[in-house]
Amino acid sequence: MLGQDVLAVLKDAGIDAVGLRRADLDITDPAAVRAAVQGAAVVVNCAAWTDVDGAESAEEAATAVNGTGVRVLAGACAAAGARLLHVSTDYVLPGDAAQPYREDAATGPVNAYGRSKLAGELAVAELLPQDGFVVRTAWLYGEHGPNFVATMLKLAAQRDTLDVVDDQHGQPTWSYALARRLVELGRAALDGRAPGGVYHGTASGRTTWLGLARETYRLSGLDPERIRPTTSAAFVRPAVRPAFSVLAHDGWSAAGLEPLPDWRAQLAEALTRPAFAELLRLPSTK
Prior knowledge:
single chain; Rossmann fold; 4-stranded parallel beta sheet; two-stranded parallel sheet; 10 helices; 39% helix
């Protein structure tokens, strides 16, 4: 999802880039990674194990990608003199705060996926203290691949009502908006305007999954009241989810950049894209 958007933004900007899929490069293979990053000015790591529930029973495999693989990438970038933009997650945080988490907030993941992603963050900080950029994002949706917004639109044609949790708080973030920000950050890094460290690549504002679902319906001309509130207790899953995933955005000022736009504005723009518009034309199966 994010990788395709990054490549699209780079292409539109006229920036030469090589996109490598999992079949093209094993990021846990040091020799292959060293060869792949040779000559690169900036490496953007969108590769990740993203199956949060699956990581609970396969933490070693998740950490191989999200931790060991990132360490290999960071080491190769250090040797090649390349900047590394590494995409991380709010799940490295405990999710029990009452105020937005600052970039320097204490970490404390509550599930295996979060632990695996924290291992990657620590590797970047250790091996690339000046040229490593950790960009945490959350509640990501986009045109490519499965995501919450697309699921809500698909289900609109299948069900009269939906129950969505209203006790998890976060910042829905459009993958294309994040891709644009990653390219801006890469340019700032090359120009020496952005210090290495942690940045929060999430939309401004905050809502719940219920709020996101209802706003998706409202913007799509559907009745938001078809979405009914429920609690996380009604959807027991293998991995614990953080209840509070709202991130602060103070770090962008150091790179001369503004925080990403409000989540509602991002969603409104995203829903004009063809892939989402097509979902609204799905025949009803109710």
